[in-house]
Here is the input.
Amino acid sequence: MGFFTSSLKHISRYNQIAQTLVKYGFDDVVAALNLEKSASLISSIVGDKKREEIKKFSKYERVRMAFEELGPAFVKFGQILSNRPDYIPSELIKELEKLQDSASPVTFNEIKTIIEQELGQTLEEAFETFDEAPLASASIAQVHLARLKTGQKVVVKVQRPNIEKIIETDTEIMLNLAGLMEKYMPEYRYLNPIGMVKVFRDTIRLELDFYHESYNLERFKANFENDPIIHTPTFYKTHSRKRILTMEFIEGCKISDLEKIRSWGLNPEVIAHKGIDVMFKQIFVQGFFHADPHPGNVFVMPDGRLCYLDFGMMGTIVSDDRENLSSIFIGVFTKDARRIVRALRKLSGTRQFPNEDLLEHRILELVDQYSNLSLKEIKISSFFNQFKNLIIDYKITVPQDFFLLIKAISTTEGVGLKLYPELNLMKKMEPFVQGMLKRKLNPLKFARNIYLAATDMSQFIKSFPNDLRDIVDKLRYGVIKVDIEHLGLEPLNKTLDKVSNRISFAIIAAAMMIGSSMIVHAKLPPFYNGIPILGLIGFILAVFFSLILIWSIFKHGKF
Here is the structure.
């Protein structure tokens, strides 16, 4: 009912999606999801010549091209999928990482209307100056340069008109398509399509709320408040709302702009070391990190300070997970595969992995591979990629932001190596890992853990007699209940259903045969050529049912 209602409400969008899928050669998907009904004149939309041109691209290239054509929701969905190597093939991830989050600019009048609606005042009242031409235009919002009445130079990020409605519509359609995929394409159920779309829906809703991004910015700023190598843009609450974000304009250049950095008399090697220190501090000390530190989001200021921009995508690692992550690297440094396995167990919340001995052997092989290299020769992104593949192969469940962390570190390493090719991330990581270990063994923390454990134990001791009395009372009066979950009985149930259906069919056919014989023998009227009509009809139906039963048995090849 939900899909039917949605398809009626958004029939034109379903048509567009189906036509785009056909255009890029995914006719099988359209057929499998029964979308032909939604796609009017679908075969005539794309000519044979155009289809042949499209087929020159690989399957994964065509997926990316289709996402780009379908608009902002699908582009954002693809970008989020690119962070899930545990679900998505590496070849597809490479294509999804190329998705361009850009769009043609919105007219100035539309932007002006949104600002005035959100701020409750005219543009002239809110800003001293406001550039009509955007600095950048993306699928969700575009950025304009402006100046406040107080003289501060700012950038104003404004959402595109109706973008929230567009995203909600496409997300609703994605959920319905995910349901169809689980129903009609069982080979993809393991991906949990509905769950993936729900995670995307929650993520994109947060991204559409600029209050959330401003919270991330303020939290990041507080973390680095007294750090001399980091500058976080000032956020102007008076000029920000759910659809508008106003922050300080940063005079600087992309961290990858070597020529500009050198022209300011700055040393790229020093900048590279600063970038790595800041990233590891976010991960191992604060547990709150910038998840998309590509060069466009990390600026170098003329005085040598680093400045992060765009706080829409952030990752979080809780204290226990940071300790487990540190244990993994300590295991790498000390060639202790068992320590790494223990840390993985804690990270995934699992008592024991299937084939744990084989997993430990694989980890030891990986560690041995890197132990023969000097720290200078080790590329952390290479280690992480192999470690990530191992996690995927053994279907180990890790925190959602773990893969974001791997991507963030790999991106930072790539940028750092461009600035300074001799950069050694493993060596830079060592003091942070050791610091994490020292904090773990801190006597004050140890005492605090003992106090918390003692508190929990006292609560347990206090409630145990009452709990035990409740159990005994339930046993005495026979009201205790035990939930039993049957695993692996579904195929047996289906087989029993088939068998009982065939037996019932056979009994009905036999009963009709016997009953018809009795009617014929009793010569009950009415007659046809001297044969009782009821008996004749009964015989015909009995033979028909018998043929159906025999055909069913032959079809399944089992008597």
In short: Residues 116 and 458 are 59 Å apart (CA to CA). Residues 315-441 form one domain. The longest helix spans residues 443-477.
